[in-house]
Structures
1.
Amino acid sequence: MQGSQQPVRLWDHRWRASGWRVLPVCCVLILWNPATALAQALTADMMNPAQGGFAPADKSLLRKTADNGADDDTPKRSARAPSRIGAIPTYGVPPASGAADVGFDSLNRTRKKPKLYPGAPKPKIAGPGNPPPAAPKAKIAAPVSQSVAGTFPGQPQRRRLKVDDDPFANVGFHTGTFLTKAAVELWGGYNTNPGRINTPKGSAFYTVAPELLIASDWERHSLIADLRGSFTGYEATFPPTASGPSPVPTSIDAPTFNGKITGRVDAARDTRINTELRMRVFTDNPGSPNIQAGLAQYPLATNIGGTAGVEHDFNRLTVSVAGLADRTTYQQSKLTDGSTFTNDDRNFNQFGGLGRVSYDLMPGLKPFGEFSADTRLHDVKSDRSGYQRDSTGGYVKAGTSFEFSRLLTGEAAIGYSRRTYQDPRLTDMKGLLTSASLIWTATGLTTVRFDATSSIDETTLPGVSGVISRDYSLQVDHAFRRWLIGTAKVGTGTSDYDGTRFDRRYFVEGDLVYKLSRTFQIKGQVRHDWLNSSANGASSAATVVMLGIRVQR
C-alpha cells in the first residue's frame, strides 16, 4: 500500500509547490481583462468536434482584425480540388514525362526541338517554377440508345460493315436476302458514219441503256442475275437510191440485250454444282458482209442457252466438267419493197461439253488447262447458197490465273481451235486462239486493263466456211479526283473470212466521268473507228461524240 501511494504524494507535493506560484498570475490577468474569463466560459462551440472547435477561430486572440491591419475579420476559404467526375483517368507514367527537351527519352527516341520563326519567344521548360500546362478536358460523347449501340438485351449482333473503297459507288438496296442494284443511262450524240459505209452519212442519235444486278447474300450457295439492255435510235434514214438498193437498212435503229443468271450450289465442302442461263439479243454489226442489200431494218437475232456442271477440289487440284446447249434464231428480213425473206438457214442448235483442270501452284498463281467439243445442227440442211453448214469443232488451251496482292488479277490463255463442216466444199476453219482478261493496279489512282477474245463464227457468204475473229484492247483508268475519272482506250481486231476477205479494225476512245453523288453521274465519250478491208468499197471510218447521264440506285 505504501508503495502504491508514493507517486500520488509526490504529484501532490509538486502541484502545491507550483500551484501557489501560477495562481497569483491568473488572478492578475482576470482582473486586467475580464473578457478573457468570458472566452473560457462553457459554450456550445467547445463541444464542436471540428478542428479548432474548443477555441473557435472567430474568437481567437490570434485572429486577424481591423486593428492589426487585416482587410476583414472573415477567414478565407481554401481552394477546392478540381472534380474528377466525368474525367478520363490516366494510368501509369507516359514515356519521357520527366526528361529534358534534348537528348533521348526512355524509349531511345530522339527528342526534337520545335522549330521557331525569327523573333518567336522560346517555350518555357516545365520545372519547379514553371508547372506544365494543364491537359484539356476530354469531351464526353452524348450517350446513344441501346438499339443503336447494339447492346439491347436480346438484340442480334450487328454485322460489321465493310470498308467503302468508292464513296460514289452504287450501294443498291436489299430485298429480303438479295442485294439489288439498278441503273439507267441516257445518251445523246452524233455519229459521222453510223452505217459504216464507204460514203459516210452522219446522224444524231440517242441511247437508253437500263441495267439490273441482283446478287444473293447467303452464307452458302450463290445466285447472281446480271441483265443489261439498250436501244439506239437515229435521226437519219437511208432510203434506196435511183442507182439501186442501199447497202444499209432504211432504219438502223436497233435494240440489244445481254442477260445472264449464274447459280452455284455448295453440295459439299469440296464439291460445287455450277449452272448458268443466258440470253442475248443482237443484230449484225454495221458493215458486215452478212447484211442483205435493200433491208428496211436489221433482223433481230436471239441466242438462248444454258450450262450445267460439277466442280470438285482434290486438295490443290480442281477438276470441273460441264455440258452446254444453245439455240440461235433470226427473224425474217423485211425488204424496202414490202416483201420478206426467210433466215431459217441461219438458225442452228449447238450442243457441247467443257472440261477444265487447274492446280493451285502458289498463292496468286493457278495454271489451268481447258478443252471443249461441240456440234452445230442447222434447221435447214442447205443454206440459201446450197451449202450444208452443219459442223463439229472444239478447242484446247492452257493458261493461268493471277492474283498477286490484288495488284494483278485475271487470267490469260493461248490455244488452238478447229472446226470441220459437213459439206466437202467448205474447208476446215482452224487457227490460234487467245483469251485474256487482266487488271493491273499500277497505282492507287491508275488501273490498266487488257482484254483479248477469239472465236469462230458463222457466215452467209457463198463458198466461205466461217469467220475467225480476234480482238485486243488496252484500257487505262485514272482518278484525277474521287469524283472525276478519265479513261483512255485503244484496240485492234481482225476478221478472216476463210481467205476470201480480210478486215482489220482499229479504234481510239476517250471517256470522262463526273460523279455528282452516289445517284447521279455525268459522262462524256469521244471515239474514232477505222475499218480497212481487202474487199473493194468496204473500208470505212467513223467518229462518235456522246454526252450522257447515269442514274443509279
2.
Amino acid sequence: MDAQGRGRAGDNVDPADQWVLNPSTGKYELRLDAAPEPAAPDPAPRRSRRAPTAPRDDTDTRELPTQRDRRSSAAAKDAPRPGGRAAARKAARGGAGPATSGRRKAKPKKSGKRKALLWTSGVLGFVVLAGGGGVFYLYQQLNGNIAKVDVGIENDAVSDGPVNILIIGTDARSGKGNEGYGDNGSVGHADTTILMHVSKDRTNATALSIPRDMITNIPACPTKQKDGSTKTIPGESGVRFNTSLGQEGRDPGCTWRTVEQLTGLKINHFMMADFNAVKELSEAVNGVEVCAAKDINDPKSHLKLKAGRHIVKGEQALAFVRTRHTVGFGSDLSRIELQQQFLSSMIRKIKSDAFSSPSKLYDISQAATKALTVDTGIGSAKKLLDLGTDLKQVDIDKITFATVPVLDNPQDAATVILDKSKAEPLFKMVQADHMLAKKGKGKGKKKAPVKKAPPELVRVDVTNGGGPLGAAQETVDWLQNAKAAKLSTNAGNAPAKLATTRLEYAPNQADQAATLADWLGLPKSALKESTTDAGDRVPMKLTLGKDFTAPGTPIEAPTETPDGVQNVNADDKNVCAK
C-alpha cells in the first residue's frame, strides 16, 4: 500500500527517523509509528499498524524534530503507559517520565543481519561482509526491485559447503543515461565476470576475474523463452568468453555453465548488473576512493584524472571501471586491475560507513536491489538476506582478487588464451578451498630457495601405476616438448598399482627431484629419497598413481598463490592505476 492509501500522502518520511529499539527482542526495527517503547511489556493491547513498504527519503533534516514529535504523540495515544497519557506525551517529547528504551538512547551494535546486507547491497560493490545489527527490512519494496532469471538450476539460498557466486556485468546500453556506453546495439555480453568463491568455513573468499576476450568453449545450454518453453542454444568452440551471454540468445545460465566447465567449480548463484549498478552504488556510498599513479586522460571512457587519490561516483565511477586505453598495456587485462581496485575500495567504504545511519543503509540496499538480476534460488529479499547471513563471517583482509592467467593468442592479437600451466594450479587451489595468500606475507623466517636442476639435467623413467591409459607416454611427451627435459623415458606399466603418485630419487638427485616436483605439482608425501647416491646415468623413477590426471595438472592443490598469477588483497589501500 502506498502513502496515499495509508492517509499519509502529505508526510515526508525519512527512513533514518523510523528505527526504534524493540525491548522484547533487543533489535532495532523500522516502523511507521516510531514512538519510544516501554521498558516492560504493556498490559493493554495495541492497535496494530502495518509497517511502511515504501518510505520516502527526500525529507529535509531540519524538519525531523517536528515529524518525530508528531509520530511519537500519535503513537502514545495507541500505547497506554504507566503514569497516564500526560506522562506518555511528556516522555514522547523527551521530558521526564517512565523509563523507556527510546530510539536515541543507545546505538545498535553491529551484528549478523547488517553484515548480511553487504552481501545483498554489495552486488558489484561486492558480495562481501562487514559489520551488522538486527534490522527489519522493507521486504515487499525490495522484492519489487529484484529481477530474476530461471536458468534451469535452482539451488538453495544457503549451502553447507563452499559457495560460488558468479558476478556478471553486462555491456548492454539499457538504463537511463547509458546510450553512449558499451557496444552499439549490444545484446548484453559478459563484459565483466567475476567468480566469487567463499570457503566452506566462511573465513575467506577468492574473487576470480575472467578476461572477456579469452578464447574458450561454450557448452550447449537450455534457456527459458517468453512463452514458457525451453530452447537449447548449441555450444561453440574457440570463441570469446564474453559471447557466453547475449550472443545467440544466451542467458546468464550459459555463462554459468561456461565458467563451471572452465574452472571445475560448481556455481551456486549468479548476480548480474548493468552500467547503472556502478553509478548508483557509488552514489549511494557517496563516492569511492581510487588512486592513479599517473595522469589519466582516456577519450573513449571520458575519464580524466590527475595523478593521486580521488573520490569518484556516478558517471566518473563508471568511466574509471571502463577505462583501459591509457593505463597499463591498454588492454582489458589492465582494465580488470582498475575494476579490482575500485571494488576493493567500495568494499572498504561500505564497511566503514554504510551503517553510519539507517538512511544510508536504506539507500545502499535500494540501489543494490534495483541493479540486480539474480537466479531464482535467491530471487527475493528474504533469500538474499539468508545468503548474506550465511556468509557473514568473511573479513575484508581475507578477500583476494585474482585474474585467471592468460597468454597472448598467436592466432589473433585481439584475444587471449588460457595459460594452463598457471591456471590449472589456481583452479585446483580454489577447488581445494585454500585461501589465496601472497608469498612471504606470513610470519617467521622465509625458507631458503630450493636449488633446482636445469631441464636438460632432469633424468627420469616414467611408469604408469594407476593413471589414465597412455599417461606415461603423454607425460614423457609433455616433459620433452613443453619442459625440454630430453632425458625422460617411458618405462611402460608399473609392476603394481599405486593409489598415489611417487617419485623415487637419490640424495645426489635432489635438485632434479625439486625441478620435476615443481613441474608436476607433487606434494611432499610423493617424494621418496633413498639413502645412497645414484650413478651419473641412473634415472629417477616416477610412478603415476591413481591420483594422476594429466601432466601439468598438480597432484595436490597449492597452498599459496601460484607464481605469475596477478592478485591483490581487498584490504590493500596502496594499489594505484599505472
3.
Amino acid sequence: MKDIIVSLLDQALATLKQQGIVPEEAHPAVKIEATRDKAHGDYASNLAMLLAKPARRKPRELAEALIDALPPHDAVKRVEIAGPGFINFFAATDAVARIVPTILDAGDTFGRSLEGAGQKVQVEFVSANPTGPLHVGHGRGAAIGDCLCRLLEATGYDVTREFYYNDAGAQITNLSLSVQARIKGVTPEDEAWPRDGYRGDYISDIAKSYLAGDTVDADDQHVTAAADPDDREAIRRFAVAYLRREQDLDLKAFGVEFDVYFLESSLYGEGKVEETVERLIECGHTYEEDGALWLRTTAFGDDKDRVMRKRDGDYTYFVPDVAYHLDKWQRGFGRVIDEQGADHHSTVTRVRAGLQALEVGIPQGWPDYVLHQMVLVTRSGVEVKLSKRAGSYVTLRDLIDEVGRDATRYFLAARRADSQLTFDIDLARSKSNDNPVYYIQYAHARVCSVLRRTEAADQPFDLALATESLALLEEDQEKALMNRLARFPEVVSHAAASREPQQVAQYLQDLAADFHTCYNAVKVMVDDPALRNARLALGLATRQVIRNGLSLLGVGAPEEM
C-alpha cells in the first residue's frame, strides 16, 4: 500500500511541475507513515509541507493541488487534508486485505528480504571471560547479539557468529590461584585466600572435579585433569576448559550457538600480537617514553595517547584487541559488529585508532559497535544481587530457571541496548496481559484455539472461499489489524539496519494488542461461511506474523497456553 501511495504522489508531483506550481529542481523524498489515529486515515504524507519552501506556497494550498493531481486508484478509498497540510489516505478494504493472502503464501518467509545481497557480516557477542558462570549482563548481550544475527540473516546477510574467549591475562591467573587454593583446602574466609581470588561455589566444584581426574570437553578442547595440586598450569588449563563448558551449556539452554570460538591465547601463541606491534612501530605511530611503548592514538581521534607495552613488558589490554580485529579483517569480514557491555565504551576509540594506525586499508569507524547497559534484577520490588553459585552476581542460569528461556530472552532483548534494564522476575513469571511475552504468545495460541474449534464444529478452514471473501473484512478493528500486519517487513528491515532488535519486540506487542482488540470486538464463528473463513484467514495471517517475529527473537510460539 505504501508503494502504491508513493507512486501516486510521484505522479501528482510531476503534474505540478508541468503546471509550474512546483519548480523542476524540487526533489523531496516522498515519505509515507502509518497514522496513529484511524480517524485520520490509514497512511499520511507530509509532502506538501516539504514542497512549501521551494514552491513558495502554503502547505495546505499545495496539499489541495497534489490531491487534485492524484491519479485515481482502486486501492485508495478517499484522500483528505489534515492539520497544516498533511495528506491522509484511506485505503479501500479490498486493497488493505490483499496482505492476508500475501502472508499466507509466503509463510515463514514473510518479512524476509535479500537486502544484504549475501554480504559477509561477523557478529561478535557475549565474549565472556572464562572465569565464572555467565551473569545477566552476558545474558543481555547474548539475547541482543543473537537477535541481531537473526535479523541480519532475515535481510539477506551471510552472518558468522563469533565468541572471543579472553583466556589470557591477570584474570586467568586469579582463576587458577583460586582453584588451587580450594584444592589445597583454603577457603575464601581464610587469610591465605588469594587477594583477587574468585569466591563463588563454582570454584569448589572445579577443584573437586580436578582432584577426581575428570575429563572436560569444551568445543575444540579436551582436557583431562592432572589431579596434581601443585601443577598450576594444569590447573589453569582444566579450570578454563571447565568454565568454557559451563558457559557453552548455559548458552545452549538459552538457544544461542556460535560458528567460531576464538581464543585470545592463540593471538600470543601464533605471534599475532607481536606482529601487530611491529607493524605499528614500522608505520611510525609509536614512541618510547618512561620505559613504556606508546601508540599515538591522538592522531586518530583519541583524547590522549595510550600505552601499548608497560615497563614490565606486558601489553595493555587493548593491544590484543587490535590484533584480534586485524585478524577479523584479514579473514575477509568487511563488516563487523561487536555487541558488548557499556563498560567497553572506552576501548572503542582505542581499537579503531590502532586499526587505522596499521595502515592496511581498514575504513574509519570500523568495526561497528552495539553497547548494552547494565541489568537490574528485582523480585517483589527489591533488587536481587547474589547467586550462591556465582558468589557475587545473578547468573543467566538463575533467570532461565526462574522464568524460562522465552521470557528471559524476550525481556533482555525488548529494550534499547543503550538503556538500563530492570528485569522484574514477578512480571516475567506472571500469566497476565501485563507480561508482554505472555500477551504475544497468547495471541498466537488464541488463533490455534479458534482453528481447533472450527475443526470440532466440522467447519474447517476453506482457503479458496476465504481468499474470495476478504473484502468482507470491513470492521475498523479488522482494518487496523491488517494494516499492522502489512508493516512487518518494514519493521524487520529497519530493525536490522539500525541494529535494534527491540523494534521487533515492540511491534509484536502492538500486533498482539490489535489482534486481541479485534478478537474481542468481532465474532469469528459466524454462520456466514464466507465471512467466517475471511476472518479465519486474518487470524491465520496474524498467527504467521507473530510466529515469524518471535522466531527473530528466539522465542517460541506455543499453540496452547
4.
Amino acid sequence: MTTKAIVSIVLFLIVYILLLLLAIVLTIASVIGGFYIITSHFHFITLGLGIGLASLGFFILAFLFKFIFKKHKIDLSHLTEITKENEPKLFNLINEIVKEVDTDFPKKIYLSSDVNASVFYDSSFWSMFFPIKKNLQIGLGLVNTTTEQEFKAILAHEFGHFSQKSMKVGSYVYNVNQVIFNMLYDNESFRTMIQNWANISGYFSIFVVIAVKIIEGIQWILKKMYEYININYLALSREMEFHADEVAANVAGSLPLKESLLRMDLSNHSYNSVLNFYENKLAENIKSNNIYKEQSFVLNYLAKENNIVIKNNLPIVTPIDISRFNKSKLIIKDQWASHPSTEDRVLNLDRLNIIKETTNQELAISLFTSPNEIQEKITNKLFSIVENSNNLTSINTDNFIIDYCKEYEKNGFNKKYNGFYDNKNPNHFDVNTVENSNKTETIEQLFNKENIDVIYDYIALENDKNVIKNIEDKVISVKTFDYDGQKYNTKETSSLLSKIENEIEDLKNKITQNDITIYAFFYDLSKKKGEESKLKSAYTTFFNYDKEYNKKSELYSNIINAAVFIHNVTPIEQIKSHLSKLKEIEVDLKKEIKNILESEICKPEISEAIKENFDLYLKENLVYFNHDKYIESKLEILFKSINNYAYLISREYFLTKKELLDYQISLLSK
C-alpha cells in the first residue's frame, strides 16, 4: 500500500511537470503570436488582440504557480499544551509506552476538548525532505470516558503511528492535497485578478475566456489526480490503523482497546449532548462549569436508558449494542474511508486475542494532577469563543442533571413503547373502518422485540434501496457490491431493486396492519372511558399534519435552493433574476410563518429571539441587494427565519406525535 501511495504521488509530479512545460510553451507561443499581431499591422485593435493573446499564457502559468505564495498556518488556538512539570504521572505513562513501542517521544503534547486522540505534525513544504517530530493531541472528552488501561491502549495506538515510516507518505499527500486544493477551490483572488484584466478591454476578455476554459481542463485533470492519490493513500491509511491497533494490543491487550472502541460513539454522543444542551442555554447566558462531569453523567444515563451494562463507572458497549438496529444487508467497500469500520477493527482485535494482566481500572482522568482543575480550565476555554462570554453564568452539575433529565423526557416517548416509535410514525389508515379488537394482546406484546425488528428491517431495506439506486445512477462509483451474502455488479442493480421494493411493500403492509392492531387496542380502552372520539381526533390530527409536513418541508427545500446563489459568485444580472424568483417563494414562507406564530402547540417553542426575528422578517419587504452589493443585515434576517421555520415545523411534527402517544399511554391508567 505504501508503494502504491508513493507511485501515485510520483505520477502527480510527472503530470504537474508536463502541465507546467505545456504552459511554458503556450506562454512563449502566445507572446510571439501577440508580438506578431501587433507588428504585422499596428492598430488599436491589433494592439488589444496582441496584448490579450500574450497575457493568455501568463495566466495559465500564474494559475499553476500561485500555490507557492499561499501560506499554511496550523491553528493551535483551540489546544492547550501540557508539560511534564504540570502532569508528571501522565508523562511517565507516555514515557513507558514510548519505550515499549520503541519510538520517539512527542515534540509537544496538547489537550483538546473533544473525544479524540491523534498524531499531527507541523507539515510544510520542507517536511517532505527533512525529518520532523510529531505532536500528540489528547481529547479530554476521551480521557474522561476511558479507564487507565484503555487509555494506555489508545496512546499505544497513537505511538504505533509514531513508529510507522509510512507516516512520511502522509506528509507528501498532505502537501500534494494542499497544492491541488489551492488550484481547484482557492481561486478567489486569482478570479478577481483575471476579471479586472478582462474589464479593461473587450479584446482582453476574449483571451480571458480562453484561459478560463484551459484552466477548467487543468482542473479536471487535477480532480482525477486527487482521486487517484487519495484512494491509494486512504487504503494505506486503513492498513496503518490495523497495524497501530496491533501495536496497542501488544502493549495493553486486545480487550481494553476493543472496549474503548465500542464505547467511542456513545462517549462522543454524550459529549455532544452536553454541548447541544448549552447551545440552547446560551440565549439565557448560561454556561457549564465542568462539561466533563456532565458528560460522565449523560454517558451512564444513556447507557441505563438503553439497558447497557455499567462496569467501573463506565458502560460496557458490546457489538450487539452497536448493530442491533443496523439490519442492512448491503456491504460496500468504502474506498474513501481513512479508518476501517469499528466492526472490522474489533474483529481484528478478537483474532489477535492478546491478553495482558490489568489491575488498574481507575478512570483515566485520575492520571492528571488536578482532574477537576484541568476539566474546568478546558471547559472555560471552550466557552471563551462565545460572544460576550464574560456575561455567562455557570450552573453546577446538580442543576444540569435536573434540567437535562427534564429535556430528555420532554423530547422522548414513554418507556412503555420500548423505543417502538423512536424511528417510525404511525402509518396512515382510515380510523373509521377499524372495529373493536377481539384480540387479547398486552401492551408488552404490541411493542415487543419482534415488532420492533420489523420496523428496523423496513428502515434497512429503504436505506439499502436508496444506496443501490445511487449505484445504478452512478452517483456512487463502485464496480461490485455484496447484498445479503451475494456479490452483484452494477448491471444487476435493476433486478435487485425490484426484489427489494417488493420486500419493502410487504413489510410496509405488515407494519400498517400492526399499527391498526395498536389503534384497536387503545380504541377498546378509550371506548370504556367514553373517549373514542378523542382518540380518533388525535390520530386524524396527526395524519393530517403528516401530510402537511411534506408540503412544509418541500417549501423549505425550495427556498434553500432558490437562495443558494447568494453563497456563490454570481453576475449582477443573474442576481436580480434569482432574487425575483426568491421573492415569489417568500410569499408562501411568510404565510407559513404566520401560521406557526398562531399555532398553540408551537408557542412554547418560540423563544423571544425567534419571535423578534420573525417580526422583523414579516413587517416589511426586505431588500437583500442594492446596486452591486448584498445587504448582509437583511440576509441575516432571511436565513435566520428560514432556519427557525425548519426547526419549528420539525418541533410541531414531533409534538403532535408526542401528544397522540402520550394520550394513548394515559388511557392505560384511567
